[in-house]
Fold:
Amino acid sequence: MDHVTNDTNVGQIERALAPYQERHPVADIKVRRENSASVRIRIIDPAFRGRGLAEREDEIWPAIEALAPDVREEITMLLLLAPEEAANSLVNTEFEHPLPSRI
Structure:
């Protein structure tokens, strides 16, 4: 998980996802501030192989729901990928190389 942040809300999100990281130590979890009103989350985890989006969200959503509403409202992207999906995902490309924000 990315740990280089002074952003309180990003830190809260990272702490909320820490139990998932503990259960899935090979998962690559990144939480990034996109702009003053937007935070993006990407989780690449082999455990997502063969699982649909709803099943993947079921694993993560309790951590998101536990966040304060003002923190949760800043999450504009929740990208849940198996490793082999990352290379062909246009949304992952946007996560890795975001277009400049207008905010």
